[in-house]
Amino acid sequence: MQKAGVQRLAAELGVAIVAPDTSPRGDDIVDDVEHGLGQGAGFYVNATQAPWNRHYQMYDYVVDELPELIETHFPINEKSAISGHSMGGHGALVIAMRNPERYQSVSAFSPISNPMDVPWGQKAFTAYLGQDRESWASYDTCALMRKAKHFVPARVDQGESDGFLDDQLTSKKLSDAAKVSGYPLELNQHVDYDHSYYLISSFIEQHLRFHASHLKQ
């Protein structure tokens, strides 16, 4: 976001931006040698399995703890929106759909749309949540979207040249899930964009204006 110059537009729109980390940090925090688990990827769940459950409560951190800190220390109103990229996009969508009363809008860049059915998500969910697929479904955007009764306006941008699109991100499944429940999803696919910074840099302004329009309602 910093490279994309988001500060200027946020100031223009009167929007405060808060960017939480992907996972707990520190020398005493359990980690994994692979990037897709541990301090590289908390997946925004409340872990139930040892040793992860001691610190990896990222869902509660984003939904409850962090907003309380912000509201205590900064002069903001009660309205909020949520956004993220890749695993963060997964987290943003899940959190918005599980807490529709808390968010005016949600957006994501290249989100992991159906984590319980792709390798990245299956690895993380097994480690953090065990083998209980009902628990997995409570953190799966497609599963939640298919059953949604209360909607948060959603925008997703996806690069068509993303090397992870078919095997890990599966945005087509996200579109199908939205059709089942009639979820208000705007899915934008972009030719020649991959999973990198350039997608965010190109379309972050549209995302901020999307959120600002809903925050001001």
UniProtKB/TrEMBL annotation:
One biological process term in Gene Ontology: formaldehyde catabolic process
Native source species: Photobacterium profundum (strain SS9)
Transmembrane segments: none
Keyword line: Hydrolase, Serine esterase
Single GO molecular function: carboxylic ester hydrolase activity
InterPro entries: AB_hydrolase_fold (IPR029058), Esterase-like (IPR000801), S-formylglutathione_hydrol (IPR014186)
UniProt record similarity statement: Belongs to the esterase D family.
The organism's taxonomic lineage, starting at the top: Bacteria, Pseudomonadati, Pseudomonadota, Gammaproteobacteria, Vibrionales
Domain of life: Bacteria
Cited NCBIfam families: fghA_ester_D (TIGR02821)
Protein name in UniProt: S-formylglutathione hydrolase
Active site: S86 (charge relay system), D162 (charge relay system), H195 (charge relay system)
Enzymatic reactions: S-formylglutathione + H2O = formate + glutathione + H(+)
Enzyme class (EC, first level): hydrolase
UniProt xrefs under PANTHER family: S-FORMYLGLUTATHIONE HYDROLASE, S-FORMYLGLUTATHIONE HYDROLASE YEIG
GO cellular component: cytosol
Role of this protein: Serine hydrolase involved in the detoxification of formaldehyde.
Listed EC numbers: 3.1.2.12
